[in-house]
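so im writing up the methods section and need the Flagellar biosynthesis protein record in one place, dumping it here so i stop losing it
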Amino acid sequence: MRRPARPPTGWLEGFAAGQAEGLAAGRAEADTRSDRLSADLAGKLQDMTFNYAEARGQVLASLRPLFELLIDRLLPAIAAQAVAPWLVQALLDAARADSATPLVIHLHPERLGAVRACLPPGLPAQLRPDPALGLQAARLTSREGESDLDLDACLLALREALSTLLDATSGKVRHG
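--- predicted struct ---
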């Protein structure tokens, strides 16, 4: 059997240098690919974020007519029906607490008849017109203090909140 020939002198150093050079080239290529993938991923995430914001803005914009219909038509109709029962309950509570002192109910002059029709007979309450109050507002005054109900102000606050929400969302969509 023949013995294999010995590698030439310096072969080991050349092999080590080639291996180090190959590893460095591989690492550089891997870093380049990693940077490219990171940039692609960042771009995709940014696109997804923009698409989400755009879709959210479109959904809210499409809901705006429904919200406005609810706030402008449905809620005022419900509010008009809700004022009288609220006043009756407040009056009954006041009568239970102190029937010696009548409760004074301040209302818009146009609401006096409707509220008077809802009051139980013999209830110690005085109705007083107050043109400064809105149609959906009432102020109850007793010896203990005062309570206000202003459904017009509640509806206005709802309209403003809706407008702020939709305007802020559409601004985010426009500017990314």
